[in-house]
Specification:
By secondary structure, the chain is mainly α. The chain has helices at about 5-20, 35-50, 60-70. It has one domain.
Length: about 80
Amino acid sequence: MNDENRSRIRKCIEEAAEKLKGKLPDSPKHPSGRNPYAHIPQVIKSAFGMSYTEVPDEHLDIVLEVIEYCEKYPF
């Protein structure tokens, strides 16, 4: 992914993570609370099988949709 798209995705992740603070469901694996800044990149990695920095530029819109989904439907 090129630097411009990577930066755009990182900004979207940060904005969504801010909105998700305290909204992610509790997990026994995270007794002090879940980290939305780590959750969203992990979802992207699960969906694409690679880090958001490695996703091809042509999938930018899909990555942004995944981020939006995470924000709308915390899981």
